[in-house]
Amino acid sequence: MKQRIIHFLQLLLYLLMKTWRAWLAVAVIIVGALWLRQCRDERIAAGTAFRIETSDSIDVTPEEIRAVRQIGQWEFLCVEAEELAELHESHLLGDKHLVRIYQGRLRIGSDLSRLRDDDFQHHGDTLLMRLPDVALLDSNFIDETRTRSFYERGTWSNADRERLYQQAHAAMLRRTLTPARLEEARRTGRQVVQRTFQALGFKEVVVTFREEKR
Predict the structure, then answer these.
(1) 32 φ/ψ angles, rounded to the nearest 5 degrees
(2) pLDDT single digits (tens) 151-186
(3) What is residue 47's three-state secondary structure?
(4) What is the mean pLDDT of residues 39-58?
(5) Among 46, 51, 98, 185, which residue is least crowded by beta carbons within 10 Å?
(6) Is 154 left (phi over 0), alpha (psi -120 to 50) or beta?
(7) β pairing state of 94-111 and 148-153
(8) By the 8 A CB rule, do 72 and 113 touch?
């Protein structure tokens, strides 16, 4: 009798353990199915919320505009100039004569630090760009190290030499900054800017220059 009771208890324990494992397996399957369903729903929701769209248009961001401004002066034309200037004074004790030859390099271009935000407009792959008008980029264009005296008679003060320098400076400006020369700089500038931004992906680049009061 005792032996039978022991066998009965062993069988009951075996059935309980077997049932527990079965329920555990069912629970694992149910949890796994729910988890897979949740992952599928999240993927569907993510696909709806974050669609990837392609576009051929190119945006010009404020950061890119600031980067162009930081280029500073963009030189389009450089002109080598030479000017002979002279001073002559007559005195009771004799005449004075000073002749000097000045060498200069005049750089003409656009000052991009003066760009405005509305100077950039784009429509798809077309960029409309308006630049500050071309002008002399550096007023100190005479190379003093290359200046030489051609003829000097009498005694001349530093003020006299400065007056002669300003005379040569003004003459170089008159002969260099002509309407034809400025238009040449604009034409070169359009070509340079167009090539630069076409290399960045714009198919068409239209460049104009903003007239400014001097």
Answers:
(1) -65, -40
(2) 888 788 899 999 999 999 999 999 999 999 999 999
(3) helix
(4) 44
(5) 51
(6) left
(7) antiparallel
(8) yes
